[in-house]
Amino acid sequence: MTSVTPTSTAMPTEGQHGLKAHSDGDWDRTVPVQTRSERFRSVNVADFPEVDGKEHVWKLSPVATFADLTNGEISGAVPTLELHEADGVDVSWIARDDERIGAAGIPEERASANAWSSFEQALLISVTGEDEKVAGVTRTGLGTAPRAAHTVIEAAPNSRGLVVLRGTGEARLTENVEILVGEGANLTVVSLQEWAEDGVHLASHFARIGRDAKLKHIVVSLGGKVVRVNPSTHLAEQGADIEALGLYFADAGQHLEQQVYVNHDAPHTRSRVTYKGALQGAGARSVWIGDVLIGNAAVGTDSYEQNRNLVLTDGTRADSVPNLEIETGDIEGAGHASATGRFDDEQLFYLQSRGIPEDEARRLVVRGFLMEIVQKIGDAELEERLVAALEAELAGER
Question: Distance (Å, rounded) from C-alpha 223 to C-alpha 249?
Fold first, then answer.
């Protein structure tokens, strides 16, 4: 197994920023990573220390819940899949040494590296043709043993399509998903987590977007005990565009987490990040961390990220941390926003004043809050199914 040497790590660096040893004696001269792009990366799990929850990338996660996925041995056997086929979308299995594996990105943390070190074959979803098409893969019945998976989604130049990755049933899964968007392509990828109530799913998504290409990446997390989907997007060539959307509904005892990274690395690139979630029930928890890096070559960048959380009951917790790094002053615009709050009393009063019962008024407010994301999927059948799933969440039927 080979590992990739990082360009920069948080290794001891004497003298940086004027740091020097104190006269009292020796000390830890380790200098923290100075920018988001400098995090250590490797495809070899042995290159990462075992997870104890003190690490920056794990400090908001319930690491004891999935220690078998980060520190244990896991199966990389090929799972049984349900395919939802379409003309212009081919699904096949490829070997670990295929040149496309690693082309979009490589792990920055141990769970991702454990999956990379363990998978036997990668699932390849190839999208070709300029006509609109919808295809997908459903994984179900994965069982309660820890598993690894690797998926590559490749959109050919000037192709168009929507790919849905859906998970249902029992699972203890750590995986990597690579998304390669060719020049002029327009691709939508929906990651839909509808796992059983005890399901655990850790996922790292890596996307590389080519010249004048667009990716719409949508994360929908409804089911599972612990779900952690972290998308990382590299706007690698001029005119690349990413719309990163997220929708989550955390119930009692459920932990739903997203750490989103957008790397503007080329001129005249654009990004829009919008994640919205609702929380209800004791112990419901959501975590959203948004990192946007505008590199020194990314002149003309247009970027904005936001996270909104709607708290429905007491006993919930929503962590929301937007971060923005700018290395060039020649940009069109960049900004970020975060908000967590309860119902808008004025909205509820307005609806109730028109004869709508309070419970129904609350349901309408929540539905309206989350529908902004659902309506951007672009497939009527999937949107209708998600609306029904949200209604079930609000009614406590899931």
Answer: 8
Alpha-carbon distance 213 to 237, whole Å? 9
Using the Cα atoms of residue 343, residue 349, residue 355 and residue 357 in order, give the sign of their dihedral: positive
The residue ranges of DSSP E strands in 224-311, in sequence order, are 226-235, 241-250, 255-264, 270-279, 285-294, 302-311
- Rounded distance between C-alpha atoms, residue 348 and residue 322, angstroms: 29
Mean pLDDT calculated for residue range 173-190: 98
- Burial letters for 323-340: b for 16+ Cβ neighbours within 10 Å, e otherwise? ebbbeeeebeebebebeb
User: Which of these, 114, 124, 135, lies nearest to 71 by C-alpha position?
Assistant: 114
Q: What is the mean pLDDT of residues 347-363?
A: 74
Buried residues in 165-196 as b, exposed as e (16+ CB within 10 A): bbbbebbbbbbbbbbbbbbbbbbbbbbbbbbb
Q: Which tokens hold the place of 125?
A: 């979803």
pLDDT in tens, 106-128: 999 999 999 999 999 999 999 99
**Residue 209: count of CB within 10 angstroms of its CB:** 31
- pLDDT confidence band for 44 (50 / 70 / 90): very high
Instruction: Output the CA torsion 293→373→138→199 (10° steps).
Output: 80
Q: SS3 of 24, please?
A: coil
| Mean per-residue pLDDT over the chain, rounded | 90
- 220 vs 224: CA distance, rounded Å: 12
Residue 68 near residue 172, CB atoms below 8 Å: yes
- Phi, psi dihedrals of residue 106, rounded to the nearest 5°: -135, 165
Six token digits for residue 387: 């609306």
- Which pLDDT belongs to residue 350? 66
CA distance 211 to 203: 26
Sheet of 317-326, strand order: 89-94, 122-127, 147-155, 172-181, 200-209, 226-235, 255-264, 285-294, 317-326
Model confidence pLDDT, tens digit, residues 141-153? 899 999 999 999 9
Amino acid (one-letter) located at 176? N
What pLDDT sits at residue 22? 46
